[in-house]
Amino acid sequence: MNSELLDKAAAALEEIRPFLKEDGGDLEIVELTDEGVLRIEFKGACSNCSMNNMTFKNGVEDAIRRLVPEIKSVEPVNFVLQ
Length: 82
Hints:
Number of strands: 3
Distance between the termini: 28 Å
Order of helices and strands: HEEHE
Number of domains: 1
CATH class: Alpha Beta
Helix content: 40-55%
Radius of gyration: 12 Å
Largest sheet: 3 strands, mixed
Low-confidence stretches: none
């Protein structure tokens, strides 16, 4: 995938990053596959928080899908979605 999509994804994540940092967490983009799958990793307090599934579904995934519809799916790499 091209760097334009990565830039758009990074901008979308900037929308929610302040909320994550308030709770001692953060996230980073691990990769964007050729198939349009964005893989992210939660950092700090977010990596083992009991609310990370909700944060992912209602925050991260929603922001990406809304602002970068070209990305087919978003997957966390450091926890299992439930």
